[in-house]
Amino acid sequence: MTDSLKAMFAAEPVVPTRDWAFEVRVMAAVERRRFRRHVGQMIVVALSLLIAAVALTPAVAPVLDGLYALPVFVVMISAIPAVFAILRQARFNRP
Amino acid sequence: MRQPGDDTRLSQAKQGSDQAFAALVGAHQQAVRAFLRRLVATPADADDLAQEAFVTAWSRLDRIAPGVAFRTFVCGIAYRKALNDRRRLKRGSERDAAWLSLRDDAETPAHETRLTLDAAMQTLPVEQRAAVSLCVAEDYSHTEAAAILGLPLGTVKSHIQRGRARLCALLGVEND
After folding, report:
1. Where in the numbering of this chain does the RNA polymerase sigma-70 region domain appear (chain B) (predicted)?
2. The complex's ipTM?
3. Does domain B1-98 have CATH number 1.10.1740.10?
């Protein structure tokens, strides 16, 4: 049985099968969204650390007197998640 | 509406692979954009909504239920975005008027039949238009269309039946 309405819809393709411009546009938008999300997360973490540091300074002052390299160690540790993220993306982007 | 390799790409995309997500976009962009072009006023608006739908899908990949096809998931998001866009357009009556005055200039259909079909589609209520777009213009099953539109199966069937009847009457073709 022929379907006249279906035939009319099929008469002219509306959108090309591959549209590289659109795909690139979507991926760029995804990248922007990811960047915004990461910046938001980093701001939250930075503010939390700042507030915690200010609040805890009187309490940890005796510890910092003994372990004066502790702040540097904490900063180094905080880079580990970024290294994980870079390695994971590199694994998927491998040809 | 599952394409070969979709499940693998989806699981890789969920783990953070941009390449896998780009492949999913490439495989499904045609269906999503075609669906939206039949729902909204201009092709440019449809493409903007399709882009937003894909970006939203990317941010919610972990929410895709097992067994749901990626295309169904994105089309569902796209439909809700189209409805929101419609509400936004309705709220701005001045912008509506401006858009309507521009519309005739912006659209340059290549085929006389297409123009008639587009014009006839625009007269349908949005739910009927969406149901007809999915199940008549494309080859989605009624179940998939119900999942995309978030409507009961019976309602979708009724929308298709009414939409078909109206389109056939407007276009002067026999309702098979």
Report:
1. 24-91
2. 0.73
3. yes
